[in-house]
């Protein structure tokens, strides 16, 4: 079976960050499900947005991506599935995360299976996945799995209840994304955007409108 391409988009600002920690936990769970349950090999790409933050800003100003940013955009848009994790500031996703989304072609995530993850200092922001992230990816015509995973500061604590609840959400979301990625053929359908459509006839000439 052809390996599936899985890209992870981590928008944490610090290093190390709880956002990257959540992204890694989600990634490990999805990869395990794909390999152990679906028998699918995984080609994994992990993107730290902080590493291309200046490139994203320059792209917004000039309209042209740097080679480094272009490579990241390709890893994201040519994947069979996407895991995103962003910190929540003032009740919504980070500005850096949104800026990266803004440099993507609006149609590039059409049909993309996506697992939505977010982190924050308090559980009060847990609904940000539903009122901010999910509508954003719905607008882009991506297929966000039903279970979003939000991790507050207390979820990384030592109590059995908090750790167990987070683990349960991670496993449920991973199963949902793995099921979609296992049958995805998005990465095989991506073609050269400058290639001629097969319906174009070079011998047919042009007709007047």
From TrEMBL:
Listed InterPro entries: CE1759_FMN_reduct, Flavoprotein-like_sf, FMN_Rdtase-like_dom, NAD(P)H-dep_FMN_reductase
Enzyme type, top EC level: oxidoreductase
Pfam families: FMN_red
Record's protein name: FMN reductase
The entry's keywords: Flavoprotein, FMN, Oxidoreductase
Domain (NADPH-dependent FMN reductase-like) ranges: 5-156
Entry-linked Gene3D superfamilies: 3.40.50.360
């Amino acid at each position: 079976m052809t390996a599936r391409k899985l890209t992870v988009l981590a928008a944490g600002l610090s290093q190390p960050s709880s956002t990257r920690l959540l992204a890694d936990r989600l990634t490990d769970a999805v990869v395990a499900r794909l390999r152990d349950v679906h028998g699918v090999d995984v080609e994994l790409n992990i993107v730290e947005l902080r590493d291309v933050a200046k490139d994203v800003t320059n792209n917004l100003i000039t309209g042209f991506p740097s080679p480094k940013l272009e490579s990241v955009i390709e890893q994201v848009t040519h994947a069979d599935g996407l895991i995103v994790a962003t910190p929540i500031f003032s009740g919504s996703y980070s500005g850096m995360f949104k800026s990266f989304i803004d440099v993507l072609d609006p149609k590039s995530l059409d049909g993309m299976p996506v697992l939505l993850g977010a982190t924050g200092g308090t559980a009060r922001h847990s609904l940000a996945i539903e009122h901010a992230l999910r509508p954003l990816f719905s607008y882009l015509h991506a297929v966000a799995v039903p279970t979003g995973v939000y991790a507050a500061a207390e979820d990384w604590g030592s109590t059995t209840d908090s750790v167990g609840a987070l683990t349960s959400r991670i496993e449920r979301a991973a199963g949902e994304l793995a099921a979609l990625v296992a049958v995805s053929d998005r990465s095989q359908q991506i073609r050269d955007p400058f290639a001629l459509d097969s319906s174009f006839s070079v011998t047919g000439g042009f007709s007047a409108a």
